[in-house]
Amino acid sequence: MYKQSNFSNTIFYSDLDGTLLNNNARLAPKCYADLQKLIDDGLLFSVASARNLNTIRNMLNGIHLSLPVVNLNGAYISDINTMRHIQINGIEKNIKKNISEIIERNNLGVFISNHQKNKDGILYYGLKNHGEHSYLCDRQNSKDQILVAVDQLSEAISSEVTCFTFIDRKEKLEELKAFIIKHNGHGIKTHLFENQYSKGWFWLTVHSHLATKSNALQFIKQEYDYTDKLLTVFGDGINDVEMFELADTAISVNNAIPIIKEKSDVVIGSNNEGSVVNYLNQLKKQSVEF
């Protein structure tokens, strides 16, 4: 239900890619400065993203967020200032085994996000297509990213696995998604979407059923005693649906997919216009005037 938020009675969470960031996966310099100023002035703000914590830290380039970060779609809830995880939602042991057998049986390539010895990493296995190798190259060029090639999936799934990521054409991944869901029931959460930076290549991510942005935001409200605060969220993609349904105020950017716009209370400008930060600036101004 839509409830009017203001600068002081609300916690704010924004998706990153396609929402807070522009199409170059960056926060414009003015938006960066304005957002840090808003937070310094008391804005309770953070991000909820499919990205991992290291990548989020590098993208935000030192912004001191005032709330925990929801990363890898809720697989992790983390303190970006200390780079420590508050909660980890790993995939159950039997499901890891089932998915690894599907991968081996069908000769699939996969990226496996894991947590081991207090470090996050990405393992990769059996890569074949251009989409997979393009992503691998991107990760190799990023800072502070642990990347390890594995020859045996049994080695990979012995650690705490938080996500399986498959990259291929849409039709192949639709079939794979249906098969994985059929054989793993309610123990998983899947997302199938086109990579907005590499058109034509789709991603299928498989998480624990507990790893959702909405579950993470409910945990944060309870754990940090924000139950008396309203929740406002910003988003654009399919992985934002559940947090839109949870929020008191759901705000979509103009470039959002149709279902997100349908579920939104407010539609603002596009991500390329810095619309999330512009909205927050305007909200602060209205609160001061009031």
Automatic annotation (TrEMBL):
Keywords: Hydrolase. GO terms for cellular component: cytosol. This is HAD-IIB family hydrolase. InterPro entries: HAD-like_sf, HAD-SF_hydro_IIB, HAD_sf. Signal peptide: none annotated. The keyword Hydrolase applies. The keyword Hydrolase applies. GO terms for molecular function: magnesium ion binding; phosphatase activity.
